[in-house]
TrEMBL record:
Keywords: Membrane, Transmembrane, Transmembrane helix. The chain crosses the membrane at residues 21-42, 48-67, 76-96, 108-125. Pfam families: DUF3792. This is TIGR04086 family membrane protein. The lineage of its organism: Bacteria, Bacillati, Bacillota, Clostridia, Lachnospirales.
Length: 126
């Protein structure tokens, strides 16, 4: 019985890595598009911030969607978990680059809510 549970854990971890990889690939692709728009169209800071928020939601949605498809049950929970891990990795990467959390607590909480909401929505839609 334990061997079967161990294999399930490995499969869950593999699926989670696939979903997070998808989420970060989508995020990277859209960030490149946003950078191109910033360069060509000279977007304002408000538009760039709105774009980044939208990109977080789209990225976590895609990760939650993939995770929901791979797991097949309790999809919204798997999507929520994907959103949480996406946010944690985003926070760790940001902290690793800047050695501090650059945004305020309110912005950080909003980003967290958007990440878990996007992941959960992606899992539910899958």
């Amino acid at each position: 019985m334990r061997e079967n549970h161990g294999k399930k854990g490995i499969i869950y971890a593999e699926n989670l890595v696939k979903a997070l990889l998808c989420a970060y690939l989508v995020t990277g692709m859209f960030l490149l598009i946003l950078a191109l728009l910033l360069y060509k169209a000279g977007l304002s800071e408000e538009n760039v911030n709105l774009g980044i928020i939208l990109i977080y939601v789209i990225g976590t949605f895609s990760g939650g969607f993939v995770m929901g498809k791979l797991e097949g049950q309790k999809k919204f929970l798997w999507g929520l978990g994907t959103g949480v891990l996406y946010f944690v990795l985003l926070l760790l990467i940001s902290f690793g680059m800047y050695r501090e959390v650059s945004s305020g607590t309110g912005d950080l909480f909003l980003t967290f809510v958007l990440c878990i909401g996007g992941g959960m929505l992606g899992g539910m839609v899958s």
